[in-house]
């Protein structure tokens, strides 16, 4: 899936990846300036986008998830899907200005700092299919690797919940999002740098 978020009107976020996973803006989420052309503007109260029926890259499949964001608020969910449980969740967020990938239970990968500086930043998370516990998830900020998961099993993301942008189901992101991508492959560091 690839959501460029370049729309200027309406409530549909179109999947430009050709897989038909378009989403619907909720509760007044709006279009505004983005990192590339237009982007999504969210108020941190209840705005978000839900991709009904799309569960993201699930199971043990390899994946790369990336997006651009801009905010002056220290904490908030950027993207989530799956379900709470040991390594069955995928929740990409900011926590006190640091990027965080929560995978369920106490399985987290963090990195970067001061990312709530009001500038655009790129986040990417990669994982291999059936990887060793020492290299389960890798987090990149602005094209640079900043964190690697260790000490937990390979990611087995639950298909329980639809993909949401700007929400984890109970809290909401205050800022802007742009150019959100899901790939069914594990990109390497050079790939991520090139994407950034």
Overview of the structural elements:
The protein is mostly beta strands and 196 residues long. 4% of the residues lie in helices and 42% in strands. The chain is built from one helix and 16 strands. Strands 1, 4, 5, 7, 12, 13, 14 and 16 form an eight-stranded antiparallel β-sheet that branches. It has an eight-stranded antiparallel β-sheet with strand order 2-3-6-15-8-9-10-11, with no helix packed on it. A hairpin with a 4-residue loop joins strand 4 and strand 5 (38-43). It is globular, with a radius of gyration of 15 Å. The protein starts with a strand and ends with a helix. The model has no long low-confidence stretch (mean pLDDT 94).
Describe the SSE topology.
Blueprint: E1 2-3, E2 12-13, E3 23-26, E4 30-33, E5 38-43, E6 48-51, E7 63-70, E8 76-82, E9 89-95, E10 98-102, E11 108-111, E12 120-127, E13 138-141, E14 144-148, E15 163-165, E16 174-183, H1 189-195
Antiparallel strand pairs: 1-16, 2-3, 3-6, 4-5, 5-16, 6-15, 7-12, 7-16, 8-9, 8-15, 9-10, 10-11, 12-13, 13-14
